[in-house]
Amino acid sequence: MNTGLAELREKARAVLDPVHYDYYAGGVGDEVVLGENEAAFRRLALLPRVLRGRATRDLTVDLPGGRLRLPVLVAPTAFHRLAHPEGEVATARAAAAAGTVLVSGVASTVAIGDVVAAARSVDATASVWFQLYPQPDEAVTACLVERAERAGCTALVVTVDSPVFGRHRRDAEHGFHDLPAGLATENMRDLPGGVRDIVMSPEVSWDHLDRLRETTSLPLWLKGVLHPRDAVLAVEHGVAGVVVSNHGGRQSDLAPAAVEALPAVVDAVAGRVPVVLDGGVRGGGDVAVALALGAAAVGVGRPVLWGLAADGAAGVGRVLDLLRDEFDHVLALCGGRDPADLTRDLVVTRGRGVSARCG
Ligand SMILES: Cc1cc2nc3c(=O)[nH]c(=O)nc-3n(C[C@H](O)[C@H](O)[C@H](O)COP(=O)(O)O)c2cc1C
Ligand SMILES: CCCCC(=O)C(=O)O
Known about the structure:
- By secondary structure, this protein is α/β, with parallel strands linked by helices.
- The protein has one domain (3-340): Aldolase class I (TIM Barrel, Alpha-Beta Barrel).
- 40% of the residues lie in helices and 13% in strands.
- An eight-stranded parallel sheet has the order 4-11-10-9-8-7-6-5. The protein has a two-stranded antiparallel ribbon with strand order 1-12. Strands 2-3 form a two-stranded antiparallel sheet.
- Strand 9, helix 10 and strand 10 form a beta-alpha-beta unit.
- The radius of gyration is 19 Å and the shape is globular.
- The structure holds flavin mononucleotide and 2-Ketohexanoic acid.
């Protein structure tokens, strides 16, 4: 892990209520996938290419829903006001200042309108995406989508890896089920039928996704895809992009490491839509490996929460700066001029030698 990120994590651990630290840090079940997401990156290496570099590198990536000045976006995570009193407002400012996208969760502790306003107060062109779980009551989903549109969000991210809540052992041990007094999921107020809670439903289907897509003209990303066949279905159902993710090891503890699921999804999608990866990205080298395996960008979840807890917007800014700086350095070391120079032939599995057929 990048040493700066490790320091921020330790600072976060020191300042956070241990119950809230464990909510952020923990995973499902035995936390096998939680560990594997990071370990899988350490099993991969990048072959440098020589004599083809450039003094300054262009890290920009264009995605449906916004331009990123570095190929790292802020993955949606719940309850930022547990980490810092400003919550998602601070995260939004930092993401906008870094020139990247905040995917703001439906389970935010600041209403989406205020999140977008915070981002735009820093950069009038900032893009904020809205993440939601498709609700079994489609009137609720439609209302959430309309709120995101009215707020000025430029894409929707539909999370589909949560037919039921993941069982997080650390939360169960602490008895952590509810937000403390004074904090609430602000997007979940005044919804049809008086609904207040986010519902996870195993009955949500591709039909729900089709109907959701008909209610909006925003680009729609599908988050939580691991099976290549689902990636193909996603394209057939008209998504603008796919996020390969096991929810940071918080849903099925039998899932593969995110980066291990990436190449097959990239192959299945075959360039028709961009693929983003999240899970276990802890340094610029991980960003480079994911891009070399075909991701257009990566998402980071927990490191942003550590930065937020450690130092509010400045801490989140530090996380994004560290990742940008380290990614740029690794790109230079690989003889890359821009992210497109990171190709799959550069990726090697440690301990298995290098194929003479590379490239
Ligand atoms: C505390 C926490 C809360 C999360 N909440 C959500 C959420 O509300 N919606 C969602 O789609 N993903 C959620 N995620 C998953 C992240 O979007 C992302 O997939 C994951 O954190 C990436 O792994 P990383 O933390 O190793 O970077 C959450 C993750 C964490 C750690
Ligand atoms: C309804 C909140 C869901 C948060 C979440 O997705 C997580 O903690 O992983």
